[in-house]
From TrEMBL:
Gene3D superfamilies: Metal-dependent hydrolases (3.20.20.140), Urease, subunit C, domain 1 (2.30.40.10). Pfam families: Amidohydro_1. This is Cytosine/adenosine deaminase. GO terms for molecular function: deaminase activity; hydrolase activity, acting on carbon-nitrogen (but not peptide) bonds, in cyclic amidines; metal ion binding. InterPro entries: Amidohydro-rel, Metal-dep_hydrolase_composite, Metal_Hydrolase, MTA/SAH_deaminase. Keywords: Hydrolase, Metal-binding, Zinc. Residues 56-423 form the Amidohydrolase-related domain. It comes from the Bacteria.
Length: 457
């Protein structure tokens, strides 16, 4: 059924003219936005939404996540640790992952994202414990299809176990042949390069300290040989520990390693990209970066040079990162933190509220290689969020966009529409039962954590 949103208070287009429109209508027909303008009408069955008290923005785009980590939040064993110590301790819990855990962990993350205005998310799943099925990505895709979110899963991987000089234990790594074979299977089964696709695949060796250089090269060759827009993703330049590892193990800084193995270009995006030289920022000009403010703050990793990346032509998106390093999947809150962290670094030369929202919407879509979403204009995907300005948190606010970024005591949107389908209405997820997800996810989570704690007692 078509949807006509009438008399929208403020509509942020993020189009090429950076238009912010007042008191306009938006018509959705099928998967697309059919029109934006005054006094629109539609012949045929349609739902009318009153937009007179609403701020409309393109759906937020989450450019980096580890959905399974929603089941490992708030673990006392890892609080206050930097990245490497945090990972070494968490690997011991993650080795108990099952398909059910991946499925319900994904549902939890998707539910949080949708309720906070996110319409497109990627995920970086790289933990495949020995003895478990290799179809964990399939479980994520099933969860995404059921809940109704646009999804870019990545086939993550770890091949460099502790016995070979890497960071992860051997129980959670795979051989390169296993990884590449399953990567090919997933691309052939799920990757959809067509406009308005709900599922697209990328290949994502985890990080320079958990995969071999050879695997990075083979993943690059596989992705680019498809000719269907399969992208590449990895963690990069997140901490000084990573930089030290790369210098000792490869004789290269992280970005220098990416240059050597030809992992630079418009089909590549990196998570974090904090510790960069001026030269390296220029090197990344054709690539993308997923900025993860909450994770970087919690793990004490550093502050991303966001303004300088944008000025250099790097595609910048915003991301929640894994929920065990955040600890939420709240995209609206991540926008606020990105704005504040940017101003902590750049003061009055920092990004405006609009520029931050644009990075979280159109910017994120561009990072993920999409030009069919992230913009509210005719012909683009019907992916958007409506925020109710008639809330006490916005009383006294005079600019709706600044208010969204800087004010508010909740991050729950009024309405989320994905691919022309309402999935959140009046703040409530309507495609699945969130209480059922909560109960089942928490049960699976408790079982895994208690299993590991018992093994150490």
């Amino acid at each position: 059924m078509a949807i006509l949103i009438k008399n929208i208070h403020t509509l942020v287009t993020c189009n090429d003219q950076d238009q912010i429109l007042k008191n306009v209508d938006l018509l959705i027909d099928g998967h697309q936005i059919r029109a934006v303008g005054k006094q629109l009408t539609y012949d045929g069955p349609h739902e009318v939404i009153d937009g007179s008290s609403k701020l409309a923005i393109p759906g937020l785009v989450n450019t980096h996540h580890h959905l399974y980590q929603t089941l490992f939040r708030g673990l006392s064993e890892v609080q206050g640790m930097p990245l490497f110590s945090w990972l070494i301790n968490l690997y011991e819990f993650w080795k108990h992952l099952t398909p059910d855990a991946v499925y319900y962990g994904s549902q939890v993350g998707f539910a949080e994202l949708l309720r906070t205005g996110c319409t497109l998310t990627t995920d970086h799943h790289y933990v495949f414990p020995k003895g478990q099925p290799a179809t964990l990505i399939d479980s994520q895709i099933q969860a995404a299809q059921e809940i109704g979110i646009r999804f870019h899963p990545t086939r993550g991987s770890m091949s460099l176990g502790k016995s070979k000089g890497g960071l992860p234990p051997d129980e959670v790594v795979q051989t390169e042949d296993e990884i590449l074979k399953d990567s090919q299977r997933l691309i052939e089964t799920y990757h959809d390069p067509s406009p308005f696709a709900m599922t697209r695949l990328s290949l994502a060796p985890c990080s320079p300290f958990s995969v071999s250089k050879d695997l990075m090269i083979q993943a690059r060759e596989l992705a680019r040989s498809t000719g269907t827009g399969v992208m590449l993703h990895t963690h990069l330049a997140e901490t000084m520990d990573e930089e030290k590892f790369c210098l000792e193990f490869y004789g290269r800084r992280p970005v220098e390693l990416m240059e050597e193995i030809e992992w630079i270009g418009p089909d590549v995006w990196f998570a974090h990209a904090i510790h960069l030289s001026d030269r390296e920022i220029k090197v990344l000009a054709n690539s993308g970066v997923a900025h993860c403010p909450s994770s970087n703050m919690k793990l004490g990793s550093g502050i991303c040079r966001t303004s300088e990346l944008i000025k250099a032509g790097v595609k910048l998106g915003i991301a929640v990162d894994g929920s065990a390093s955040n600890d939420g999947s709240n995209m609206w809150e991540e926008v606020r933190r990105a704005y504040l962290l940017n101003h902590l670094r750049y003061a009055d030369a920092g990004l405006s509220a609009y520029e931050t929202v644009k990075a979280a919407t159109r910017g994120g879509a561009e990072v993920l290689g999409r030009n069919d979403t992230g913009i509210l204009q005719e012909g683009k995907a019907a992916d958007l969020a409506l925020i109710n300005l008639e809330d006490v948190a916005f009383a006294g606010c005079h600019d709706p966009l600044v208010s969204m970024v800087c004010c508010g005591n909740t991050s729950i949107v009024d309405t989320t529409i994905v691919n022309g389908r309402i999935v959140v209405r009046e703040g409530q997820l309507i495609t699945v039962d969130p209480e059922d997800i909560r109960v089942k996810a928490h049960k699976v989570s408790q079982e895994m954590v208690e299993k590991e704690r018992r093994s150490k007692s």
